[in-house]
Amino acid sequence: MSFTESDRMHGVSGSIIRELFKMTASPDMISFAGGNPSPDTFPMDEIAAIANDALLHRGTSMLQYGFTEGFPPLRETLKSYYQKKHGFPTENDDLITCSGGQQAADLTAKVLLNEGDVALCEELSFVGVLNTFRAYGAKLVGVRMEPDGMNIEDLEAKIKANPRAKLIYIIPNFQNPTGFTTSEAKRKAIYALAQRYDLMILEDDPYGELRYEGEFLTPIKSMDTDGRVIYGGSFSKTMAPALRVGFIVAEKNLMKRLIVAKQTGDVHTATLTQEICYRYMAEHDFEGHLRDIRRIYAVKCKRMLDDMEQKFSPAITFNRPQGGLFVTAFLPEGMDAWSFVQEGIARKVATVPGVAFVMDQSVPSNAFRMNFSMPSLDQIDQGTDILGKLTYEWCK
Amino acid sequence: MSFTESDRMHGVSGSIIRELFKMTASPDMISFAGGNPSPDTFPMDEIAAIANDALLHRGTSMLQYGFTEGFPPLRETLKSYYQKKHGFPTENDDLITCSGGQQAADLTAKVLLNEGDVALCEELSFVGVLNTFRAYGAKLVGVRMEPDGMNIEDLEAKIKANPRAKLIYIIPNFQNPTGFTTSEAKRKAIYALAQRYDLMILEDDPYGELRYEGEFLTPIKSMDTDGRVIYGGSFSKTMAPALRVGFIVAEKNLMKRLIVAKQTGDVHTATLTQEICYRYMAEHDFEGHLRDIRRIYAVKCKRMLDDMEQKFSPAITFNRPQGGLFVTAFLPEGMDAWSFVQEGIARKVATVPGVAFVMDQSVPSNAFRMNFSMPSLDQIDQGTDILGKLTYEWCK
Lengths: 396, 396
Hints:
Chain A is an alpha/beta fold. The first copy, chain A, has helices at about 15-25, 45-55, 60-65, 70-85, 100-110, 125-135, 150-160, 185-195, 250-265, 270-285, 285-310, 335-345, 375-395, and strands at about 30, 95-100, 120-125, 140-145, 150, 165-170, 200-205, 230-235, 245-250, 315-320, 325-330, 350, 350-355, 365-370. Chain A is built from 13 helices and 14 strands. In chain A, the strands form 3 sheets. Chain A has an 8-stranded mixed sheet, sandwiched between helices. A 4-stranded antiparallel sheet of chain A has the order 10-11-14-13, with helices on one face. In chain A, strands 1-12 form a two-stranded parallel sheet. In chain A, a hairpin with a 7-residue loop joins β10 (about 315-320) and β11 (about 325-330). The longest helix of chain A has 26 residues, at about 285-310. The interface between A and B is large, with 83 and 83 residues.
């Protein structure tokens, strides 16, 4: 027999990146294709010590069913941290933990989006969350992306053109894949449009702590006077991804519904991994740890960008990100990056074609994403040598 | 502002049991209301040792992003275990891990159920999964439950009456809340009806290992020649619930879609907690551990049932479960157990009213659920003293 799939899942495919990984698994491949944080940034010994101590001395509470809302000490610690840093959660908000930043998007979509509702997304955007929206039957509408964030006129035009527009999805800092950061002026403009047209905003901020240059910007959630912004955060890049701990800040009544959605999804997030995040923040130098991570990545980021400036054909455009894990480069308008990426892979350097990050995968993209957190400095040098030559061949 | 919720979430409320817990939090309350496994069954020292060793010696692989399908050594171990025990997964099936047994239901509903599709459920059934189905906009239709499983005539009648019937949901062993186990004859009959009317089956088996008397029965999945049964398992009762590790066995093509749904939901389950389950199964005496758990619960189960037989009014009916964590008792037909339960709580013994487990919460239920895994033998004696008197007052 063959089963009949739900309508909402029709056309949702696995991540193209995942398929690409199979092509790039050969050991002599230099991979700029991944999106993983560097294991050098994981506080491994501290995590081992916390886990052991917690299980030996607080075993029952680590192992018995916990609260859907999350492990109370971690929730309290995160609340204090973000209140001090960004002024939220306010008294109108609540904060819960969840199973990685991805689940913040999943719960948001489940609670807010009917099938056919429109999510306005940065074009290009993170394929994982685009697929989350698709998996609830939402329609994705891309908004033109600029180095300082969404083009505001295009955003308003797309809102007007889509009466079922419900949610704006934005990665405000060092966006995946572009590396672009939305300026404060545009953050205010996006919030103002959300107010004017009564839309919700999902502000997905996994990279916010990873700033290597320039000033930290105010989250849109900090401007949220009427509870329309859902802020999603993650420990995946500040502690370790396989802990699967993230968090959500949202207005209290909305949060009650997100909690019910989470209860029906996975009951609660594993307690041991929440304890690890909690005690690392409470008992270790979390700020110092973040500075160490930034120092590690700043060097790699600069090397990748300097190499690209020096070695890539001037026909290739890109912007220097001030943080995060990625930079996206663009072939001349009208070129399809997919064949460029395939030729790179044939020469043993893997990148991700822009088609992985678009709303409509039938339209070619001239973009390709490069990751600098995983490769070594030598690999960055060698890989950009090869890609540099390729850009000159491609853009003769 | 107030947000507009998705249609699918309308009317999905949090678990009544959760609300009840707030009423029963006083320290002098004897609680038969919980559903937690006893912490005496958690292999705490072994878990601490595994976690510490894994993080110290395999840190990177414990902390870096893992596969959506699950941690490979755990998947392989589970495949061997269940192939030996139950003959699945077959070559047509695959097995993945997931974030607790609850997520097996969540992914199943996401991939299979359109809004308005009908899930046929045991009346009474586990509220957590009923809410999962509700949260995808499915319609729940209850099938009359008997001590040996669903009434087969009623199941067929309900299938015929509901052209959009899509899924049969069954907890085959020591069902929550009733404690009933579906007989082998009825398992075959349910599978035959699923074949005749082309329905899928979700076989949710968190209690299968917890048999204290009688013979282990064959899962429906073992009879599944055409890939219509999704089998969900869990480590919540055999290791510890807060690890949040479960697993799913399903036909390969369906599994591909469940994997995509999981990828959009939480990317993957925490690796450390999967490693704990894997190494406990591989390096410790898992079968011996299961025997220990059964020994602990068998005593409590027998005490609860003997006490009830001895102390409850003969007007109260119940069946002796041969395993699991629960027994449900029934007041005489037509009585509403909710006021009985409230009076019990006033006298400091908490149980859960049947209304928490019904399809239509506006219809009263004469059932109340009692848990025997958490209370001590003394608490079982004291609590049944009080409830026993109450049954005589109630059924004068």
